[in-house]
Amino acid sequence: MRRTTVSAPGPGGYPKRASTEKLQEIFLKHASIHKNGEAFMSSNDFVRGFLGLLPHEDYNEQSVRLLAGIIDTSKDGLISFAEFQAFEGLLCVPDALYRTAFQLFDISGKGMISFKEFCEVLTSTELNERLSFGMDNQFLKLYFGKEKTRAINYSEFSQFLHDFHEECGTQAFQKFDKDGSGFITALDFQDIMVNIKNHLLTKEVQDNLVAAAGGQGGHRVSFPYFMAFNSLLSNMELIKRIYLNATNGNRTQEITKDEFLYSAQMMSQITPLEVDILFHLCHLIHQRGRIIYSDIQAIAPEQYHKRLNNRLAEIRAVSSPEERGFLIQVLESTYRFTLGSVAGAVGATAVYPIDLVKTRMQNQRTGSLLGK
């Protein structure tokens, strides 16, 4: 298997753009439409031809349209070379994931996202079937207005994704808490984490979800415990800093819960309940009462921005199948980050067949963006 071409980072350490000539060569190889002397890719050319996704004849046309919409910024059903080149440039910016996600939801291409556009993408996902997210709740009214007529810009959208992710967790808990007791079962907790919050889970954490739910006794999970569990996994970079502060940078020194709490007291974002969960998880996985840095690493979810930007810095052109596989990685990362942060586990959504993508990535690449 050939390795991808390595490129030195451009100014400021950001990924270097591919040459116009190289990109045009790639573009023309897949463009099947010609109008007024100009070549264009169709949605099928880009998604099924260039990316090699959805190869079967019974593919979901809505999936193709939504995926191609990320690059088809004019929304005319045709992808020009200028749009193809702009997409390559989009992958080189520091906030590539947020930018790509914004273009996914910006179906009309107006640079603003309406409530209708948000609903069209969301209802194409498996999340909608699993959770039946209420579209008339107060949370959405705060962002889109009482009458849902307000559109949100890019900056607001980035915050919306973060907050909507939290709202999904809350609604999922309420769905399973049928009697309104403020508790769900350990198996319901596992179901939510695996199907809605999967992007926060490492294999070690996923394998110990039911046991972790037993941390409160009786294998029931309260809403505060549920929120603290998710908050902990969302703040693992801060957890690492607290540990390193407690050990003066020593990554192999064992520390107790009290020592960790003492180091954490200056950072009010971390609660004692989150620290309890941290030590309980580490004990379940490593069978010891103290923790070291590698214990924290084992439960820390993937930092998409960091790995995406590091991987982008190695890419120069996307001409070979292996290099095209990287674009698939970027799109998967976008979906895991957006419909992942929005929905948790994307799974086999109507929008994007993640299982197929993972198989293709494992076959096509030597490096890994998201892990196997």
From TrEMBL:
This is Calcium-binding mitochondrial carrier protein Aralar1. It is found in: Mitochondrion inner membrane; Mitochondrion intermembrane space. GO terms for cellular component: mitochondrial intermembrane space; uniplex complex. The keyword Ion transport applies. GO terms for biological process: calcium import into the mitochondrion; mitochondrial calcium ion homeostasis. The keyword Ion transport applies. Solcar repeats lie at residues 331-372. It holds the Pfam family EF-hand_8. It is a multi-pass membrane protein. The gene is aralar1_1. Belongs to the mitochondrial carrier (TC 2.A.29) family. Belongs to the MICU1 family. MICU1 subfamily. Coiled coil: none annotated. Residues 93-128, 164-199 form the EF-hand domain. Keywords: Calcium, Calcium transport, Ion transport, Membrane, Metal-binding, Mitochondrion, Mitochondrion inner membrane, Repeat, Transit peptide, Transmembrane, Transport. InterPro entries: EF-hand-dom_pair, EF_Hand_1_Ca_BS, EF_hand_dom, MCP_dom_sf, MCP_transmembrane, MICU1/2/3.
